Amino acid sequence: MTRPEPVGPGALLVVGDVVTDVVAVHPEPLAPATDTAARIRTLPGGAGANAACWAARTGAAEVRLLARVGTESARWHERALLDAGVRPRLVVDREEPTGTVVALVGKDAERTFLTDSGAALRLCPADWTPSLLDGVAHLHLSGYLFFADSSRELALLALRAARARGVPVSVDPASAGFLAGLGPQRFLDAVAGVCVLLPNEDEARLLAGLPEPAGVAAAAARLSRHIPLVVVTRGSAGALVAERGRITAEVTAEPAEAVDSTGAGDAFTGGFLAARLAGADPAEAARAGCRTAALAVARLGGRP
Question: Residue 135 region, left (φ>0) first, then alpha (ψ -120 to 50), else beta?
Fold first, then answer.
């Protein structure tokens, strides 16, 4: 198993999700059966779209995004992506609305999600065309794609097409809850052949098949025996880089006054991938990811 080389010049293609985020920040605990004061905003979001926007914000020269949205907000989402420097290819779904996520953010800036995937996971092989890879140096797949049959078929098609062209592929597992529902081994089988895996601590332990008390370093090391480069995000503890069955770097988090942790992992992914495209080694790219995540948690919502 060889170490993945820096990506080099070319476009970043993200295949993933665009959703509408309803972010509710409530400084006090939720009060059942009555009102809880909150600051509420409706913002563009989605793990794939967020990562693409942060990659463009942190220096990736060309970022493209393939996603599916509903008719009711297609123009709004397209404009938001263009304004962020991303070239969107949005498939408009005539039957389902754009996916919606309600993010409840408590005093500690941690969030709880209520998710209606809507059109997001209705991406299908018919939405793919080989020309999407023209000029692409790296393909990133949002893990959410693997949790529904139609979008999983599309993700596998994109993965095979990229490998046939020699384009490296990364995956963000996206959700420990959805991973548990799908089954960790089924997910790992689906992403066989990717070069980079970007889980958080809970996702890494789950995918490695290790119990809660086990150290995340052990999980990262175990996963890197199967996937060349594993970078585990750890929130305020920074990130771990694992290659060929061992930890090769421990990166500290950047100081930040947390307001909303929504999209912090997506921001890390975007910053990490932009750095890799610029030629950074894994540890340098992880540091770039931590810097980007610090920017994300200091503001409301998941985008730059």
Answer: left
| Residue type at 83 in one-letter notation | D
Q: For tokens 């921001």, what's the residue?
A: 267
Distance between CA atoms of residues 173 and 192, nearest Å: 13
pLDDT at 211 over 60: yes
Q: What is the pLDDT of residues 264-281, one digit of tens each?
A: 999 999 999 999 999 999
Q: Are 274 and 284 in contact (CB under 8 A)?
A: no
Query: Encoding tokens for residue 15?
Result: 């295949």
Dihedral angle over CA of 228, 60, 147, 76, nearest 10: 180
Dump the DSSP string for 253-286: PPP---S--TTHHHHHHHHHHHHHHTT--HHHHH
User: Would you state the torsion angle of the CA atoms of residues 173, 302, 159, 152, taken in this order, to the nearest 10 degrees?
Assistant: 70
Q: What is the pTM for the complete model shown?
A: 0.92
DSSP state of 45: E
pLDDT digits (tens, 9 = 90+) for 190-200: 999 999 999 99
Are 66 and 15 spatial neighbours (Cβ–Cβ below 8 Å)?
yes
Helix (H, G, I), strand (E, B) or coil at 105: strand
d(CA 115, CA 101) in angstroms, rounded, equals 5
Task: Assess contact for 249 and 286: CB atoms under 8 A.
Answer: yes
Q: State the Cα–Cα distance between residues 25 and 52, nearest whole angstrom.
A: 24
Nearest by Cα to 15 from 167, 132, 173:
132
**Structure tokens that stand for 177 in this block:** 């809850």
Please state, in angstroms and rounded to a whole number, the distance separating the CA atoms of residues 99 and 69: 7
3-state secondary structure 157-177: HHHHHHHHHCCCEEEECCCHH
Q: What is the pLDDT of residue 184?
A: 94
What region does 33 belong to: left with phi over 0, alpha with psi -120 to 50, or beta? Answer: left
